[in-house]
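Schema walk-through. Below, the input block comes first and the output block second. Nothing else is stored per chain. Lengths vary across the set, and this one has 126 residues.
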Amino acid sequence: QVQLVESGGGLVHTGASLRLSCAASTGTFNKYVMGWFRQAAGKEREFVAAISWSGTSSFYADSVKGRFTISRDNAKSALYLQMSNLQPEDTAIYYCAADETVTMAHIPRLYEYDYWGQGTQVTVSS
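--- output ---
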């Protein structure tokens, strides 16, 4: 069982930056592929980014590529999402997710992830 707790959300203006964090309560954090997803009001939850267990491979949705950076610190059991040049369309609740067995081909599929945090709100005003 893995518990995930996100933090770092907030209200910012267009063009600003934010860093989200996700703390994991597991001693085997380095066995999990980790992902960030987001859900805007009235929309389905969507993939944002993911990172391999070792941190050597990362994957991004086209909408955030070049603006967001996912990283992890296995020694701290922590996942991060550095977001820059934020736009109003980035407004959403951001969730971190974890799974031991998701394959690279299925990384963007939210139903592949067994563990989810409660989410943190990011609001970008124009």
